[in-house]
């Protein structure tokens, strides 16, 4: 791995921490708040690609596990891995890898709408399909109830997916993916 890739991974881990400083929006009917951090997850995949993007998210999760209060609401430490948000948090590296893989395959013919679809499928739906059942198991509710509750995240996550697609396409010329394909 090149030094530039390591720097990008560290910068995106820091970006995820900064997005965690934006206060969460709690919902009364589900124990998982709305946060801005999924925007960073999608951006890591579409801007950095599968390898560097996933590394940045893993680095972030390790920092959280070490106790840094980087998650939205100032949370950190090992307790977050047994909280209702654990499934969502653990889905981030998988989502980033899938977004990065799809983005790299589409890179030469990349369009904002294509990247938006990739972000919705892997950054919205995949994260919810992993996070909601884990939340349901932790809170001792039905998986169906968890999935129905997760629907409340879809409108905001779709806006984040669009923002990530627009930003990634606008910054395409400076993306590390561009260098790897040359």
How would you describe this structure in keywords?
182 residues, mainly alpha, two-stranded antiparallel ribbon, 8 helices, globular, Biotin transporter, transmembrane, transmembrane helix, cell membrane
Biggest sheet strand order reads: 1-2
Class from secondary-structure proportions: mainly alpha
Low-confidence stretches: none
What's the mean pLDDT score? 94
Describe the sheet with the most strands: 2 strands, antiparallel
Tally of DSSP β-strands: 2
Count of runs of 4 or more consecutive helical residues = 8
- Using only C-alpha atoms, the radius of gyration works out to 16 Å
Helix content: 55-70%
Shape: globular
The proportion of residues in beta strands is: under 5%
Give the H and E element order.
Answer: HEEHHHHHHH
User: Could you give the distance between the termini?
Assistant: 17 Å
Any chance you could write out the topology, listing elements then pairs?
Layout: H1 3-19, E1 25-27, E2 30-34, H2 37-48, H3 50-65, H4 86-106, H5 112-139, H6 143-150, H7 154-170, H8 176-181
Helix pairs in contact: 1-2, 1-3, 2-3, 2-4, 2-5, 2-7, 3-4, 4-5, 5-6, 5-7
Model description:
The chain has eight helices and two strands. The protein is mainly α. A two-stranded antiparallel ribbon has the order 1-2. Helix 1 (3-19) packs across helix 3 (50-65), helix 2 (37-48) runs antiparallel to helix 3 and helix 5 (112-139) runs antiparallel to helix 6. It is found in: Cell membrane.
């Amino acid at each position: 791995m090149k030094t530039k890739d390591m720097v990008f991974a560290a910068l995106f881990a820091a970006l995820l921490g900064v997005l965690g400083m934006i206060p969460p929006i709690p919902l009364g009917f589900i124990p998982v708040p709305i946060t801005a951090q999924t925007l960073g997850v999608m951006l890591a995949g579409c801007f950095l690609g599968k390898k560097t993007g996933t590394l940045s998210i893993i680095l972030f999760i390790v920092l959280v596990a070490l106790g840094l209060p980087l998650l939205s609401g100032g949370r950190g430490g090992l307790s977050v891995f047994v909280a209702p948000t654990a499934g969502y948090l653990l889905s981030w590296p998988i989502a980033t890898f899938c977004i990065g893989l799809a983005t790299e395959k589409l890179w030469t013919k990349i369009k904002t709408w294509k990247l938006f679809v990739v972000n919705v499928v892997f950054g919205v739906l995949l994260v919810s399909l992993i996070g909601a059942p884990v939340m349901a198991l932790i809170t001792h509710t039905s998986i169906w109830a968890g999935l129905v509750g997760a629907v409340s995240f879809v409108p905001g996550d779709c806006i984040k997916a669009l923002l990530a697609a627009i930003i990634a396409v606008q910054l395409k010329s400076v993306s590390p993916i561009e260098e790897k394909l040359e």
